[in-house]
Amino acid sequence: MIITCEAVSCNYNSLETECAVMTIGDESGVTGNVRHEGKNVAVLVCWILGLGSLVSWNSMLTIADYYYALFPDYHPSRVLTLVYQPFAVGTMAILAYNEAKIDTRKRNLFGYTLFFASTFLLIVVDLATSGRGGVGPYVGICVLVAAFGIADAHVQGGMVGDLAFMLPEFMQSFFAGLAGSGVLTSVLRLVTKAAMEKTEHGLRKGTLLFLAIASFFEFLCILLYAFVFPKLPIVRYFRKKAASEGSKTVAADLAAAGDGQGINQDNSKFSQRLSNKQLILQNIDYCLDLFLIYVLTLSIFPGFLYENTGTHNLGSWYPLVLVAMYNLLDFISRYIPLVKCLKLESRKGLSIAIISRFLFVPAFYFTAKYGDQGWMIMLISLLGLTNGYLTVCVLTAAPKGYKGPEQNALGNILVVFLLGGIFAGVALDWLWIIGNGSF
Q1: Are strands 31-33 and 2-7 parallel, antiparallel or unpaired?
Q2: How many CB atoms sit inside 10 A of residue 388's CB?
Q3: Could you confirm whether domain 36-258+274-433 is CATH 1.20.1250.20?
Q4: What are the record keywords, sorted (predicted)?
Q5: Please, are residues 137 and 70 in contact by the beta-carbon 8 Å criterion?
Q6: What residues pair up with 33 in beta bridges, in sequence order?
Q7: What's this model's pTM, rounded to 2 decimal places?
Q8: Residue ranges of the domains in the chain?
Q9: What is the per-residue pLDDT across 285-341, written as a single tens digit (0 to 9) for each?
């Protein structure tokens, strides 16, 4: 098989514009556009990789009722989230600072492997303690949750940086997969609760089933990223293009696809790339947008839903239904930007929409105090809808107009602000319990 490249004019303002046409020819004379070959498979793989990067953590959030039964005095939903985030933000900051020197392949594979190992060890901890509470098991769970944070920083930053110089559809699919993990875990939780709630140790059995399914998906992601994703023609094309622009982070993935030889890396181009500081200054509005999206969301979800919504007709089902509705609308909304006329691309418009979401704070407060469960379900649905939609709009718009190495760096920077927003939101979430009981 012979690979030839025809250079045509390149417009960096959109990944959808024609940058180069790469064709494949074989002995039969059949040719095809490599840039689009394997696109649908790549979109599917990105979705699964997105699911795998959050399915373990979403499982922890969704089975919070089990941990509340084991550790009723330790605020599991809030504490575990607060443990998770410093490790995620700290690790991500270090990785983003050194992103140009880090092998993306090793980074992502390490992250998915750590996710798999930590999730599996949660099962081991529960089996070893026979599902008993106490300080010891709680500390063990906290340690594994901290490992989740480290894994998240490796995977989410690595994948976003990698996908930033590919098609926007890949980024959208990856983040749809993130939300899809929430839908999957919520549906499974509702099913297992309905099927096992009245059986002996039903809550515990459902939890172990959850963690086993999450472990399976993490292992699947390891296989997909290691052996499938790097060999897709469209992925190889964009990575070769990034390498030709000076990117050093794609070398191992190109080698895994058999493209390690013959790639000319223009180091002079890399030396001319914008610094991280310049990228932040040029995209400070996008960075703050992501920070504010997740400050607001995580100051409400999930801790407020489990501890501050009162008692209603749905009983123990109530927080599970709220979490499920958030996850469902968050998932659906991440596909809305695929409809071009519905995608918000104005930088000023995005900022206004994101700041206006802070009206959710008084809305949730007064609804929890005076409203019934129907209003709360509507509010949490709107929270999920705006969270997913605005996240995808920002992340697909920001990388446009840059070269491959700069897009990779910007992707990592955006994830730092995203995780920073989550951390700040988790910390602010504790304010809801002031005057609402002891710590």
Answers
A1: unpaired
A2: 28
A3: yes
A4: Membrane, Transmembrane, Transmembrane helix, Transport
A5: yes
A6: 23
A7: 0.85
A8: 36-258+274-433
A9: 999 999 999 999 998 887 677 665 656 677 778 888 888 899 999 999 999 999 999
